[in-house]
Specification:
48% of the residues lie in helices and 12% in strands. A 6-stranded parallel sheet has the order 3-2-1-4-5-6, sandwiched between helices. By secondary structure, it is α/β, with parallel strands linked by helices. It has one domain: NAD(P)-binding Rossmann-like Domain (Rossmann fold), CATH 3.40.50. α4 packs antiparallel against α5 and α5 (107-131) packs parallel to α6 (144-151). The two termini are 24 Å apart. It is globular and about 55 Å long. α2 (36-48) links the parallel β2 (28-32) and β3 (59-63). The longest helix has 25 residues, at 107-131. It contains 7 helices and 6 strands; from the N terminus they run βαβαβαβααβαβα.
């Protein structure tokens, strides 16, 4: 499942799952997003991607329901943007107007963005624990470091995570992310094959 399934990274992930060594590894790719128009646009883009010699890519299903998207999933790739592009622009402009660093991953802009991203990611982690505790959560939601750190030490009680929740944070540099995501898929595939 891709949380933020209406985002620009989705066609890259889809292509990686449709060709080469990962073709056939994933039967269904669920795209979750709160914006049905973005989901429809990305689904149209994916349907226009020509199948490679490795066969068709995974079936694509879209949903605006987090619960529906998580049910039965093995891996969640999270790239959410609470507040959308308008939220990012506000974070960066307010910081810049004050003479501060406004970029979404660092400085005042990053802290503002973290304040919007972390609650959504905690909700995602809580739902994941209830619906698919064995699934991996791979986070590329910016600011990636702060968001992943907010998920990891949650402990018990009214928190989001515990020892059973498997979380990996990836810095969203395109090539590095693709390599890291590919490595995580390989580890995931190997761990699933090793189970009796």
């Amino acid at each position: 499942m891709i949380a933020g399934g209406g985002g620009f990274r989705v066609p890259l992930v889809y292509r990686a799952l449709s060709t080469g060594p990962f073709a056939g590894l994933v039967r269904e790719l669920v795209l979750f997003d709160v914006d049905p128009l973005r989901l429809a646009a990305i689904k149209a883009v994916l349907s226009s991607i020509a199948p490679s010699g490795d066969g068709p890519g995974p079936a694509v299903r879209t949903t605006t329901s987090l619960a529906d998207g998580l049910d039965g999933t093995d891996m969640v790739f999270a790239a959410i943007r609470p507040g959308g592009t308008a939220g990012r622009m506000a974070d960066e402009r307010v910081a810049l107007d004050l003479g501060l660093l406004g970029q979404e991953t660092t400085g005042a802009g990053g802290i503002c963005y973290a304040l919007r991203s972390i609650p959504g990611m905690l909700e995602l982690a809580r739902e994941l624990k209830q619906r698919c505790i064995t699934a991996w959560l791979v986070n590329v939601t910016n600011p990636a470091g702060m968001v992943t750190e907010a998920l990891v030490p949650c402990g018990t009680g009214a928190s989001c995570a515990d020892a059973d929740l498997q979380i990996a944070g990836v810095v969203p540099i395109p090539l590095l992310s693709l390599i890291a995501f590919t490595a995580i898929l390989v580890l995931f595939w190997v761990s699933r094959k090793a189970k009796p």
